[in-house]
Amino acid sequence: MSICIIGSGIIGLSTALAIQEKEPRAKVTLVAESFSPDVTSDVAAGYWRPSLLVDPRTDVLWRWGELTFQHIERLAYREPDTGALWQSGYEMRQDSVKEDFFWKDTVRNYRNISERELQNMGFSQFKSAIFYTTLALEGSIYLPRMLDQFKRNSGTLQQKRLENLDDIGGSYNAIGNCSGLGAHHLITDTSVYPIRGQTIRVQAPHIKHFYVFDDDYYVLQNGTSIVLGGTHQEHDWDTSVRPADFDHIWNGNTNFLPALKTAKIIKQATGLRPGRPTVRLEAERRAVCGKTKTVVHNYGHSGSGLTLFYGCALDAADLLQQAVHRPNAKL
């Protein structure tokens, strides 16, 4: 059997590895215009926390996120060189709104911070906050490892830009569409839109916690560096680094956390997150190269690709497995 996976970000790679595990004899081809280190997942800090999702299906998001959290936890304990690590920190707000996050039982040590405690910490401008321990998975470290594993599993890489599904050819039994933002043009899904993110990566070993300020600014730990953000500019396709956004990120974070002012700037980066009203994970029968094929869609994760990837990959692989063994089954 032959399966094509479109997309080489965290969603595409995890789906490809999941179907290889389920069907070790399958010939799996990964098709993408770019591979790591030139994909959006390489830019992400990989902080486990549902972000920029407007999908109302919190039960489904929770399950995907929980499975992914457990996967990263295993990596952190067994394979720390994958870029997986624990981190603790604070989310702070300048209003007194306390949200009941659907993911609060997944993370560790979740608790509300009192206003008095914030004042004692030197954050008197904030009225409410939470503390918790979560995981991070640095994409720029983990993606190359995934790619190596895919090739060791006899997977094939094909680098090219697809204008439509017919461009992949007609020899595959099933197709996994993990094209992310590319679904906008690949299958003309106009509900997919870019959420532009710009970040600054710095060295600041004296910063021991992560911080999120009003959902506008963040300080997130990776193994040897810290990622400062951020922007979430919807419908903005610009991938260039903007000086105005640098000023916004730097000034905002150093205003709230002055200890960052001595940080050494390493680099700046941008990425376009694949926004969508809901994550699309489903099988569809459609014409590809004149033949009816099963296409399993797995895209539209907004800013939560590294939070949901593993759970989504397992579900997508189940659908692909059904497609190759029961191609005429009702979806």
TrEMBL record:
Sequence similarity: Belongs to the DAMOX/DASOX family.
Native organism: Plectus sambesii
Gene Ontology MF, one: FAD binding
Protein name from the UniProt record: FAD dependent oxidoreductase domain-containing protein
Pfam families: DAO (PF01266)
Xref: InterPro entries: D-amino_acid_oxidase_CS, DAO, FAD-dep_OxRdtase
Record: residues binding FAD: 40-41
FAD dependent oxidoreductase domain segment(s): 3-319
An example Gene Ontology biological process: D-amino acid catabolic process
